[in-house]
Amino acid sequence: MDSRFISIALEQYKREDIGRSIKDLRSMLHAKHGHEVTMYKVWEAKQKAVARIYGDFDELYAELPRFLAALDDANPDTVTLLKCDPRVSGTCIFNSAFWAFGLCIRGFGHCRLVISIDATHLYGKYKGKLLIAMATESNNEVYPLAFAVVKGESMKTWGWFLACLLTYVTNRTNLCIISDRHHGIQSCFDDTTRGYLQAPLTHHRNCLRHLVWKAATANQVGKFENTMDYIKNVNLVAYDYLKAVGKEKWTLVHDRGH
User: What distance in Å separates the CA atoms of residue 135 and residue 177, rounded to the nearest whole number?
Assistant: First the structure.
């Protein structure tokens, strides 16, 4: 039972659930064939099964320019940007990619002036982050706006993503951008040389889910102060942490309507 044979045996399970763990796959293999194999061999077989289902990682990255070009051809309003690092041999190494579908760009003109940005891990052979910008439509449903694949979260990558967003996706003013407190994002908005990330063009706010909900959503100053006093009595460290964050960044009652 080499890794190629095992990959064929496991392919069905990976198609049903790409997230199955190595441990689960090893147990399924034993139940089906009554044979014990090492965790490493199952891992190697899993990589081959995934490559057969979705394609080889190297080949897929090589296809990225053609894929983005196809998006442009199918919808001229779609925005795609591909950054590569040149090498002496004449080849290029993937750096980052940004895309926003034309229909989403046009539709945002009818959405409220609030965008949430966040990132999630990529778990493939090559690690990285998927950056996402989301709006909210009139039924309070999530509205996908723009995406980027980058090496990791930093001031440089978030600055590039925000610049693409505000250059190619929307030029509306008084835009509220909500995020967690990642230092890369915060550094972008603290950088006064980035005029497009300053009021009145944009207003930066912190996601309430990452802070204390009851205090953050209070709609009266008195209710906010009472909740803060309660937090202070229960956990002084939490109170000091919240006091260090500008109140306009995370509380509705001090947000000035943005």
Answer: 10
Mean pLDDT computed over 168-187: 93
DSSP string, 17-55: -TT--HHHHHHHHHHHH-----HHHHHHHHHHHHHHHH-
Q: What is the Cα 122 distance to its own chain's centre?
A: 9
* Domain coordinates in residue numbering, the chain: 3-55, 60-206, 209-258
147 SS3 class: strand
Of 142, 143, 153, 118, the C-alpha closest to 132 is 118
Residue 74: count other Cβ atoms within 10 Å of its Cβ: 10
Given a cut of 90, whether residue 79 has pLDDT beyond it is yes
Instruction: Give the integer Cα–Cα distance in Å for 142 and 175.
Output: 17
Structure tokens at 120: 């999630």
User: Residue 88 has what pLDDT?
Assistant: 67
Tell me the sheet residues that pair with 115: 177
Q: For residue 56, how far is the Cα from the chain centroid? A: 23
The HSE-up count of residue 239 (CA atoms within 13 Å, CB side) is 13
Positive/negative CA dihedral, 150, 154, 157, 161: positive
Question: Nearest to residue 83, comparing CAs of 74, 92, 91, 75?
Answer: 92
Determine the residue type at 249.
Answer: K
Q: In angstroms, rounded to a whole number, what is the distance separating the alpha carbons of residues 28 and 34? A: 9
Which run of H or E residues covers position 75?
none
Residue with tokens 């000091």: 240
- Are 80 and 72 contacting, i.e. CB atoms less than 8 angstroms apart? yes
What contacts 63, CB < 8 A, 6 or more positions away? 55
What is the rounded average pLDDT for all residues in the chain? 90
